[in-house]
Amino acid sequence: MYAEAILSAFSQRYAGARDKFISAVETSSIVERINNIAHPLRGPKNERLFCDIAWAGNPRSRNVLVLVSGVHGVEGGVGSAIQSDFVGRHRRLPADVCVVMVHALNPWGFACASRNDHEGIDINRNFVNFADTQPDSTEAVAIWKQLIKQPATLESVAEQREQFDKLSQGQYSDAGALYFGGKAISWSRQIIEDLVAQLKPEKRQKVVIIDIHSGLGPYGYGELISDHPDGSAGQQMARALFGATVAEPALGTSVSGEKYGLHDYFWHKQGDNVCFLTLEFGTFGSQQMLNVLFADQQLQQSGKVDWSEQKTLDIKHAMQDFFCPDETQWQELVLFRGRQVIEMALEGLTAHENGS
Ligand SMILES: [Zn+2]
């Protein structure tokens, strides 16, 4: 069992999570630099919003581990806790490895307890090439329209894997519906593009990205999801690093289905030395997830999110309680798995080329 002091790395709310991360960074002996990128908008309490990028270890190291939190705003509490815990308990890093922590990639969504960003964009469907024709959204939007007419059908959508996968694969036509991938590069995606330009994966030996999410799968279990194509170098690397624990949507072995515009795809393009995994922590199941997402989406669509209203607070608290449960046993499972995955990644990054 972890002590309360360790579990205090968790905060469901953006401001609290950021305070914990920044204070861990400030007292850390491994963080070399931090870049605070200000968001154009403010949070519901008029607080300033940032995506903070902290570099631990020598930034010129040949091997890099990137830990990302808050792609889906409200899920940020989970990744933030893992990042703060990591910074707080390491006094040194293995030679030739640096760890880059991207804290709250979508700070507006985190602060406003929403999955999407301020433009209604699901960042994890936004990494398509906008010069191309986007995938056909007809079916996904039709399912959404049916849900609005008849919210009771949420239950059958959550239960039928095929329908749920269809709804959540991403759509590019309706900014008011869930899983909207956007019409252009989002604020958050631009941060990733700038980071990649700075990091220069082609000049590194190995780059591993762990993108931390929550909401899918069994309570407290952290599934490592690889969307690398079957037979690719990335898939080989994922399996070499994490063994049988790697789940692959393309092979039907994951809680997640195949999707458009994933954050993964942008990193996959950076080279064969890059391995991207989503670390997805389960909470209370798909049915309840759709319930809270649906209520929040309806609230946003109403155009009047009034933070002084009890109804708003109820919907937002339900989102926070679903995506980052304030429960000791859940937090313990998350920390255990988070630490395990990070240590495995660091070990893999420092292993000798031939055989060890
Ligand atoms: Zn997510």
Describe the protein's architecture and organization.
The protein has 356 residues and is of the alpha/beta class. The protein has one domain: Aminopeptidase (3-Layer(aba) Sandwich), CATH 3.40.630. The chain is 40% helix and 18% strand. The protein contains 13 helices and eight strands. The protein has an eight-stranded mixed β-sheet with strand order 1-2-4-3-5-8-6-7. A hairpin with a 5-residue loop joins strand 1 and strand 2. Helix 5 packs across helix 7 and helix 11 runs antiparallel to helix 12. The longest helix has 23 residues. It is globular. It starts with a helix and ends in a 6-residue tail after the last helix. The mean pLDDT is 94. The structure holds zinc ion. Zinc ion (ZN) binds next to strand 5.
Beta-strand content bin: 15-25%
Quaternary class:
single chain
Shape: globular
The structure class reads: alpha/beta
- By CATH, the topology is Aminopeptidase
The strands making up the biggest β-sheet line up spatially as: 1-2-4-3-5-8-6-7
Specify the number of helices. Answer: 13
Low-confidence stretches: none
Helix content: 40-55%
Strand count:
8
Please give the structural blueprint.
Elements (H helix, E strand, L loop, with lengths): L3 H4 L6 H13 L4 E12 L5 E9 L6 E7 L6 H14 L7 E7 L3 H5 L26 H12 L4 H6 L1 H8 L18 H13 L6 E14 L2 E4 L7 H10 L3 E2 L15 H6 L5 E9 L3 H16 L8 H14 L4 H23 L6
Parallel strand pairs: 3-4, 3-5, 5-8, 6-7
Antiparallel strand pairs: 1-2, 2-4, 6-8
Helix pairs in contact: 2-3, 3-13, 5-7, 11-12
Bound molecules: zinc ion (ZN).
